[in-house]
Design goal:
By secondary structure, the protein is an alpha/beta fold. It folds into two domains: 1-60, lambda repressor-like DNA-binding domains (434 Repressor (Amino-terminal Domain)), CATH 1.10.260.40; 64-205, Rossmann fold, CATH 3.40.50. The protein contains eight helices and seven strands. A hairpin with a 2-residue loop joins strand 6 (196-199) and strand 7 (202-205). Residues 6-60 form the HTH lacI-type domain. GO terms for molecular function: DNA-binding transcription factor activity; transcription cis-regulatory region binding. InterPro entries: HTH_LacI, Lambda_DNA-bd_dom_sf, Peripla_BP_I. It comes from Klebsiella pneumoniae.
Length: 208
């Protein structure tokens, strides 16, 4: 007998939360505490739950198309970068789902990628300072996700955006718009894009 498809109600019951909380994790994860998000994600994984995007669209809910993993938006620079990315994303009719890990280690970042994957998001901008090894492992372990990093070593074997730190967060925000363009390109072509290094003065493609 075929297994019954898990519902949002099943996930809520398994996670010990309300259906509204599960919905928030799917649509506005940034407003849900990390602990609750992890409970819900674990329940989704255990039940093999797949969000019903058709139902969400019929209900008038726009599905987020790209993800942004960032430091706390209570900090000035991350909030400015996030605002710029959201602004540029809207020009491409894209929503941005924001995830803010408590720590920038592999386990926490992988959990955030899993959350975004559960929302059928396949393009993510990572606006956190990361060690090359961490960024490279995230890319290797998530081949179905296009990850673009804003703060990694130029030597890292990943897709990245580079800018002069002396120009401040404004330069990074400008680079964020280049990141949106790359993710849109990846989404439309349905292929992985090669690593890209970009500066506000001009784009420079780097094949690695």
């Amino acid at each position: 007998m075929p297994r019954r498809t898990a519902t949002l109600e099943d996930v809520a019951r398994a996670a010990g939360v309300s259906q509204q909380t599960v919905s928030r994790v799917l649509n506005r994860p940034e407003v849900v505490s990390a602990r609750t998000r992890e409970q819900v994600i674990r329940a989704m994984q255990a039940l093999h739950y797949v969000p019903n995007r058709s139902a969400q669209l019929l209900a008038g809910k726009a599905a987020p198309s790209i993800g942004l993993i960032t430091a706390s938006l209570t900090l000035h620079a991350p909030s400015q970068i996030a605002a710029a990315i959201k602004s540029h994303a809207s020009l491409h009719q894209l929503e941005v789902a924001i995830a803010m890990p408590a720590q920038a280690d592999f386990v926490a970042l992988q959990a955030r990628l899993d959350e975004l994957r559960a929302q059928h998001i396949r393009g993510v901008i990572v606006s956190l300072p990361l060690e090359s090894a961490t960024a490279e492992r995230l890319v290797q372990d998530n081949p179905d996700m296009a990850c673009l990093f804003l703060d990694v070593s130029p030597e890292a074997d990943v897709c990245c955006v580079r800018f002069d730190h002396r120009d401040g967060c404004g330069a990074c925000a400008t680079c964020g718009s280049w990141g949106i363009a790359n993710l849109v390109c990846w989404r439309d072509r349905k292929v992985r894009f090669p690593p890209v290094c970009v500066s506000p003065a001009g784009a420079r493609r780097c094949t690695v």
